[in-house]
Predict the structure of Rhamnulokinase.
Amino acid sequence: MSASATGGSVKSYAAVDLGASSGRVMVGRAGRDSLELVEAHRFPNRPVRTPEGLRWDVLSLYAGVLDGLKAAGRVDSVGIDSWAVDYGLLDADGALLGNPVHYRDARTEGVAEKVWATVPAAELYAETGLQYAPFNTLYQLVAARSSAQFAHAERLLLIPDLLTYWLTGESGTELTNASTTQLIDPRTRDWSRDVADRLGIDLGLFAPLRQPGDPAGLLRPEVLEATGLSGPVPVTTVGSHDTASAVAAVPATGERFAYICTGTWSLAGLELAAPVLTEASRAANFTNELGLDGTVRYLRNIMGLWLLQECVREWGDPDLGELLRGAAAVPALRSVVDAGDSAFLAPGRMPERIAEACRDSGQPVPRTPAETTRCILDSLALAHRRAVAEAQALADHPVDVVHIVGGGTRNALLCQLTADACGLPVVAGPAEAAALGNVLVQARAHGLVGDRASMRRLLARTQPLVRYEPQGDPAAWRAAEARLADR
């Protein structure tokens, strides 16, 4: 359905949504009372290990974007979201200086301690509100600044901003993604110049900040030719951190909700009006990232379905449905691991590493894929429980319901276990939350939908949602939590 076919009441938007393992171009058809999403093109995102380390194949991603726009057909706008923290460096001519480094690359090992020697961890948190993660852009920049590439760099663009630049020839730095660099003050929603100055980071490398909804240029003539699109086609700035787009697509009916954005990572937390910058919040490793309309995404990073994805890869890609049915038959909470442990960050040998963690903690060692899968899902639900409970306490913001969005909504066992663990109802859906949030910000920029609450009401009316009520004995989850705490 095109805008012209309906007198302009419905428009089509291309949402480029790039994840750590795949990318896709989705087409959203949005109107004041309608919202549909279809997949135009999906393509793999395969990092490449070179002699220098782990790199993103960003040229392949860009080719996938162009193929997706060609498959999408006529659209009224394009928006791009992706994972956070990683970037490309450009020279004075605007040419890319090598493939972007993957956040799982080992180059940032030990860098945080060097940073903290100049800006102590407590001061860094008080200024930026960002959790400690070894791959934060700040640590990547400190690790890279002695490299030849960095010496020749005139511009730094985060991944979605880099692709936007290639599409339009115009550069900017989208704010929700910039907030994951550990160089943004969440109170002012601007650069933390004090932190940058103390660490010798030139903020002039970054393009001017953009807000979700801002125009980001028009598709270049060469892009129109490659995609078969008729111009002009605008590119609209969206919440270019995929979690910002996903949170925008949480179909909540009020403010007393927690969310868990599930996929390779689980991002569990709250939507707040102001950051929480206390020492207790830092000690709990919660992050304050920026969202739509002046909001703060107060959340904790949990390793997420990466644990299961890596195991499935090691097992030779067995049927996931059979694996989950087998896991459902395994006794609950037999063995659990800390799903936030950075020991699970790197790829490779995931089943063995989970078994080793269980052995080291004196728990039964999973012996079969079904037992390992149940260990992972119980551990994720337990991590969700801890994050939701601690976020409420630290932010003094009670909730009545947990919304799960993203790929994990398709895992009914994980959704039910999360309801059981949290002792709260779980509403699962939509699965393509990041793409829908991307589409809705574009639609709002073009006047088709109203404020954030209106966006969420439209989602609740149009998207399939499943509700899970908590079951079982809460004491079992408290005991499992205590088991992890004693380690």
